[in-house]
Structures are given as structure tokens and as C-alpha cells.
Amino acid sequence: MLIAALLVGIVYYLPALAANGSAPFVKKGTPIDFRKKLNDGRRILGDGKTFEGLLLAVTFGTTVGAIISRFLGDEWIFIAFFESLAAMIGDMIGAFIKRRLGMERGQRAPLLDQLDFFVSSTLVLVLMHVKIQIVQILFIGILIIFLHLFTNYVAFRLKIKSVPW
Ligand code: CTP
Ligand code: MG
How many angstroms does the Cα of residue 109 sit away from the middle of ligand 2? Predict the structure, then answer.
């Protein structure tokens, strides 16, 4: 059943979604790049990537994994931890690319903003032998673009984020 496969696909990505969605609750923290700049005069990552955000995201993502593990098996606690970590590393790679392109923190980078964490978490799911299908990856990818636009808008309205993207 296609619908069932798509729903299972969503469940596979819940840890990454929870991780990525919880980081914005951290407004100020210690920047992962320790405010260091590269030769281009720009920050390595910027103030939007903090240790607190990373910790909260991985904790939240792994907790979601612990719930999922009740249905998909104990290994999901383990998978969720690495999936969440990968999501945040992908998010940092996205920030790194944005800074190199001279973009300020929070400046809009369509597709990169939405898919950086998705690409890295997909890679980890595949590497950890989660039986994920191309159709699931494509469906979730498209879903994430819409979900991201929607949740960022809601977070902006709730004043959790300073910009609506
Ligand atoms: N955040 C954090 N630590 C992380 C990731 C995110 O503290 N490792 C928080 C920051 O407050 C960040 C917010 O979550 O501003 C939203 O994340 P994101 O949209 O990825 O960051 P941006 O502010 O848009 O910055 P960037 O341009 O670097 O993506
Ligand atoms: Mg952003």
C-alpha cells in the first residue's frame, strides 16, 4: 500500500523533524563556531548554530526515537540519535554554505534552508540500513518543504523565530 509506505516514511523522519523543529526554541547560547571568522571575514557558522540548540535537538530527536522504538524496534533509539545528530550537522553545513555565500544569519536560502537537514538525515538512514524507498524519500522531501514553510511561519507568529522563514 502506497499510503502505508508514505506514513511509515514520515515515521522514519520524525526524529530528524523533531530535532530540526526544536532547535529554534534556543534563542541565545554559545555559538558552535565560538564566534570565529574565516579568511573571507565572515563567521564560520554564525550565531544561529549553538551548542544548546544542538543538545536540545539531539535530545528531543532521540526521545522521539524512544517512542518510535516501541513500534519499530529497540534499534530506533540508536538510529534516532544518529539521525538527529546528522540533521543538525546538515543544518550546520547549510549555515556554513550560507556564510561562504555572504548571507547573514536567518537570511533566506530557498531549498537549502529546508533540505540541508533532510539530505544528511537521509544519508544516515541509508547508512544504518533502514529500508527506505525512493518514493518515501521524495514524498517526505516535498512534505518537508511545505511543513517547513508552515512551521516557520507559525514560529514567527509565536515570536519563537524573528523571521517568517
Ligand atoms: N538553533 C540553535 N542551534 C542550532 C540550530 C538552531 O540555537 N544548532 C536555533 C537558533 O536560534 C536559530 C534557530 O534555531 O536562529 C533557527 O535555526 P535556523 O533556521 O537553522 O537558523 P537561522 O537563524 O536561519 O540561521 P542560518 O542563516 O545560519 O541558517
Ligand atoms: Mg534559517
Answer: 8
CA distance linking residue 63 with residue 126, whole number of Å: 21
- For residue 26, the ligand closest to its alpha carbon is 1
Tell me the per-residue pLDDT of 91-106, one tens digit each, with 9 for 90 and over. Answer: 999 999 999 999 999 9
Q: Ligand 1: distance of its center to the CA of 79 in Å?
A: 23
**Ligand 1 atom 13: residue of nearest CA:** 24
Summary count for the chain: helices (H), strands (E): 5, 0
Q: How many CA within 13 A on the CB side of residue 1?
A: 4
Atom 20, ligand 1: residue with shortest CA distance: 91
**What average pLDDT does range 115-133 have in this prediction?**
97
pTM for the predicted model, two decimal places: 0.92
* Closest to 102 measured CA to CA, from 165, 46, 159: 46
Residue 149 has pLDDT above 90, yes or no: no
Biggest alpha carbon–alpha carbon distance for the chain: 53
Q: With 0-12 CB in 10 A as exposed, 13-18 as middle and 19+ as buried, what is 49?
A: buried
